[in-house]
Each structure stands twice: as structure tokens, then as C-alpha cells.
Amino acid sequence: MSGVRLARISAEPLDLDAHLRAVDDASAGAVTTFVGRVRDHDPDAAGEVVALEYSAHPDAEATLAGIAVTAIGRTAALVAVSHRIGRLGVGDAAVVIAVASPHRAEAFEVCREVIEAIKRDLPVWKRQVEADGSTAWKGLGG
Is the overall model pTM greater than 0.85, yes or no? Predict the structure, then answer.
């Protein structure tokens, strides 16, 4: 049985509470979350970042589910994870992850593996928009 309760690529704003509800389980003594938000700067940007525009490969949602399955491995963890696409402003959530498990170490470990694998393997690209109108594309691992 898979512990993936939710794995979604969404054009709609992401809801942390919905992710928490998705992993709610009486056997879980620990719940960890990660929210990746759009920030107003980037080390590679010459100026202020005002938006990110995310686009995804058609297989991205299946890849996201696979990332969650791999991160869960042989643990008893439950995972809900979503990645946003479209134009996001500073402060908007781009990624939301909730992991529930019987023990805290497992919950932290699975959550970290999910976000690291997203950054490394998910076919989602972002176009970074700076205040002066300049843009830069960032790919896998970006």
C-alpha cells in the first residue's frame, strides 16, 4: 500500500491545511511540513525578484508521485505534496509538503528527501522575473 495521499501539480494556490488533512492518521505521532515560497532575491539575480513563472512537463505529476513513493521507501510515512505552476508573486507557496509518520526522525527524513528530489528530478522549470523586467530561466536543480 502506498503512503502517497496527494501528489499534485496545480495552477491553483496551495493549501497547507489540505495537505495536513490528507496525511492525518491516528498512527502518526509526528507530522512535518515544508513550504517553499517565492522570495524577493536570488544569488544569480542582478536585482529584486518580483515573480516566478513555473511551467511543468505533462509527466510532472506522475514524477512527483514517484518521488514521494521513493522517499517513503520502507517507512510507514504518509506524504502529501504539491507543486504550483503559473505566475507566483513574492510570498506565494510554490511547494507544499506534509509528512506524517509514527516517529519524528522518519517524518523529517522523508520530508527532506521529497524536497531534495523535487529540486533534483522534477520536470518543472521557472522563469525568474526581476523588478527591471529582465528574466532568467532556471531548470532542473535550479
Answer: yes
